Amino acid sequence: MPKGTILVTGGAGFIGSHVCDALLAHGYAVRCFDNLSTGKAANVSHLEYDPGFSFVKGDLGVPRELAAAMDGVSAIVHLAALGSVPRSIADPLASEAANLAGFLHLLEAARDARVDRIVYASSSSVYGDSQELPKREGREGRPLSPYAVTKAMDEAYAHLYHSMHGMRIIGLRFFNVFGERQDPEGPYAAAIPKFIRAFLAHRPPVINGDGRQTRDFTYVGNAVLAVRCALAVGEAASGQVFNIAYGDRCDLLALTDRLRSHLARLDPNIAQVRVEHAPGRAGDVRDSLADISRAREQLGFMPAFDLEDGLTRAVPWYAENWR
Ligand SMILES: NC(=O)c1ccc[n+]([C@@H]2O[C@H](COP(=O)([O-])OP(=O)(O)OC[C@H]3O[C@@H](n4cnc5c(N)ncnc54)[C@H](O)[C@@H]3O)[C@@H](O)[C@H]2O)c1
Hints:
The structure is a single chain. By secondary structure, the protein is of the alpha/beta class. The chain has a domain at 5-181 and 217-247 and 289-305: Rossmann fold. It contains ten helices and 13 strands. It has a seven-stranded parallel β-sheet, with helices on both faces. Strands 7-10 form a two-stranded parallel sheet. β1, α1 and β2 form a beta-alpha-beta unit. α1 (14-25) packs across α7, α2 crosses α4 (92-113) and α4 (92-113) packs parallel to α5 (146-165). It binds nicotinamide-adenine-dinucleotide. Nicotinamide-adenine-dinucleotide binds at residues 10, 12-16, 34-39, 59-61, 79-83, 98, 102, 121, 123, 174, 176-177, 190. Nicotinamide-adenine-dinucleotide (NAD) binds next to α1, α4 and β5.
């Protein structure tokens, strides 16, 4: 007996494609909604012949496309957005349209279609200029980028739609997610895929700043587990946001050392590739580490993969697909 159809916005993106895989594997039907702006059809092409999977090319900014996509769905996993802090500084209006207006379009379409269970992606960037470590829900700072503003406002709207319309909405604040299919190309690529790509090409990975900045790198398998927990949890978690991370941190110099040793097992010449430094970037936070106790207690979320587990899975994928 199928468990119902879940609409996954941004399903052709990095995290979204893994969520589609996992939901299908757990007996849901999945409707993937994506405008393929940063996502790729290739990320879900392996699902083409799965009878539970369908793909809808559509844009969050077009209400009739959203309304059509919501027909018959029992829940929504909303991951569509324009990621990247630097992108949002370069083009804040594009980030605002996709991440904030797009989210409001989604909430309105869901309200009309009476789909009242929504799990959406927020971001650790909402902690902004707070120096406190670890980061705890309720202790946010001021946003340091347009991207962070859009995610903070999404959280405000989610809370409002929960209290005003009784919708069951749960926010997941993802911390630096990495893994297979994360795009290593272009100016807005995230650190891990960008560094792996550079090492594979025998080019020095470029670290912005001194490399001592720390991140709570979170393997995508943990993000997927959190989505599944949030879809299954009872009413009490509705209207809330949860840190989703592994709960440990690593600085960029140590990260590049680990990547080098993983990759040198596949290509010994990579052992000689050294890193280069460039100036620090506007909008970047210095340190990031999540307290995940709220997600553990209220969602039943237990990360299953540490950084090493994640690199062991992701690095060979890049070596195979991007060499
Ligand atoms: N990757 C991370 O480290 C990270 C960290 C924190 C939060 N997040 C959030 O998680 C979500 C997924 O991120 P990701 O890393 O998989 O990014 P991604 O770019 O790989 O995926 C986003 C997807 O959304 C689609 N999209 C963008 N604008 C759209 C629009 N207007 N209409 C329809 N589809 C649209 C893109 O084509 C893409 O497939 C995003 O909301 C992101 O802000 C990601």
